[in-house]
């Protein structure tokens, strides 16, 4: 019996991973207690995704509604399956830097302590398993905002002569900058994952993603940028652009492209690796550009307003460099760009997101 244990299994990345590895013939142990509905309200619930997984994977998917903060419950699950667990994908998290400021202790307990709980259970019960962690580009804090940026018509762009012109590499410092409390809790988790790799020899990887997206996202205002823009277009919900003239740039990676990267690492794992992973120069857009694309694809105008107040720790420009990962796994490449991502989000959510699904007004 070959098992993949996935925390946050009904979220965007977790559910994509569950489907992918389940379709490869692995049994999947899913851990998710739908905290997304607690963070962002009932419209962000992932219960629909759990039902989809249980129907699609059948007996290959076993769900545990457990909180990663519950150390004993996590250990009990790992102890039950033991060394049959070959792959651990840890995606469970509090994902919003805005929300973290409201409840810093909750954020840290989920992101940092929850990660420690999963790591320690891996070390004790299945130390030969490959451990993959969905980290974030927010570990670099707002240091990217110190890069030499140029204002163009619809976006900010980096000086083309700069060393990061092709994207920000892993050699950027994580020190001496403002992270947001979310960024700080994810730094703690990221370093823990690296340390369990170096100290205990566990084959771990931190994937520092930018905008992780796709049609499986339970999009909401505080998390799920591209999917939320499209959802606003499809439901007639007003959208608010926060700061930087709406020209802030994000690279975007489809969850399936990300899971295919996870699979590459699983097949040829390394110890204590760190990878920036995202859409890079192939797939990126500013907020204004994403709004325009969503309007073109949906055929509907988005009612949007502008707030001068940018979000704490927000990046003006983020395009990551996937070069390190690609050098280790040359068979991997991106398949989805921003337009294709938005087209798929629109197509696959046309029934779920109708105008009757109009979201609450943004605050």
Which value, in Å, is the CA radius of gyration?
A: 19 Å
Q: What is the total tally of β strands?
A: 15
Strand content: 15-25%
SS class? alpha/beta
Q: Give me the strand/helix succession.
A: EHEHHEHEHHEEEHEEHEEHEEHEEHH
The number of distinct helices, counting runs of at least 4 residues, comes to 12
Please give the share of residues in helix. Answer: 25-40%
Task: Please give the largest β-sheet.
Answer: 7 strands, parallel
Gross morphology is: globular
Query: Can you tell me the residue ranges where pLDDT is under 50 for at least 5 consecutive residues?
Result: 359-363
**Largest sheet, spatial ordering of strands:** 3-2-1-4-5-8-12
Rounded mean pLDDT score? 94
Distance between the termini: 48 Å
Structure report:
By secondary structure, the chain is of the alpha/beta class. Helix content is 39%, strand content 18%. It contains twelve helices and 15 strands. It has helices spanning 12-23, 35-40, 47-57, 71-81, 97-100, 104-125, 180-200, 225-235, 255-267, 287-298, 323-328, 338-348; strands spanning 3-7, 27-31, 61-64, 85-90, 130-136, 149-151, 156-158, 203-209, 211-213, 239-242, 249-254, 273-277, 284-286, 304-307, 317-318. The protein has a seven-stranded parallel β-sheet with strand order 3-2-1-4-5-8-12, with helices on both faces. Strands 9, 11, 13 and 15 form a four-stranded mixed β-sheet that branches. A two-stranded antiparallel ribbon has the order 6-7. β6 (149-151) and β7 (156-158) form a beta hairpin. The protein starts with a strand and ends in a 15-residue tail after the last helix. Mean pLDDT is 94; it is low at 359-363.
């Amino acid at each position: 019996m070959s098992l993949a244990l996935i925390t946050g299994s009904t979220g965007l990345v977790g559910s994509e991973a569950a489907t992918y590895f389940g379709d490869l013939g692995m049994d999947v142990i899913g851990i998710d207690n739908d905290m997304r509905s607690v963070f962002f309200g009932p419209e962000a619930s992932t219960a629909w995704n759990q039902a989809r997984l249980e129907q699609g994977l059948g007996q290959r998917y076993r769900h545990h509604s457990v909180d990663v903060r519950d150390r004993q419950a996590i250990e009990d699950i790992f102890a039950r399956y033991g060394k049959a667990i070959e792959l651990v994908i840890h995606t469970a998290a509090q994902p919003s830097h805005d929300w973290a400021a409201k409840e810093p202790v909750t954020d840290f307990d989920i992101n940092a302590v929850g990660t420690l709980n999963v790591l320690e259970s891996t070390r004790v019960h299945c130390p030969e398993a490959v451990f993959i962690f969905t980290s974030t580009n927010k570990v670099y804090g707002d240091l990217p905002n110190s890069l030499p940026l140029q204002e163009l018509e619809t976006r900010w762009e980096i000086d083309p002569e700069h060393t990061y012109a092709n994207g920000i590499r892993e050699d950027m410092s994580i020190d001496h900058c403002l992270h947001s409390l979310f960024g700080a809790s994810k730094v703690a988790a990221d370093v823990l994952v690296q340390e369990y790799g170096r100290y205990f020899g566990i084959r771990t990887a931190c994937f520092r993603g930018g905008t992780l997206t796709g049609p499986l996202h339970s999009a909401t205002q505080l998390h799920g940028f591209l999917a939320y823009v499209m959802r606003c277009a499809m439901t007639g919900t007003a959208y608010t652009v926060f700061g930087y003239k709406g020209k802030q740039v994000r690279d975007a990676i489809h969850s399936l492209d990300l899971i295919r990267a996870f699979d590459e690492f699983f097949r040829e794992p390394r110890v204590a690796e760190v990878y920036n992973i995202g859409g890079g120069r192939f797939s990126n857009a500013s907020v204004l550009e994403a709004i325009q694309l969503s309007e073109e694809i949906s055929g509907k105008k988005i009612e949007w307003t502008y707030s001068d107040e940018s979000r704490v720790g927000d990046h003006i420009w983020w395009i990551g460099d996937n070069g390190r990962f690609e050098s280790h796994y040359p068979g991997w490449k991106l398949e989805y760009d921003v337009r294709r991502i938005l087209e798929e989000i629109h197509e696959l959510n046309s029934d779920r997101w109708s105008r009757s699904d109009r979201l609450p007004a943004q605050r």
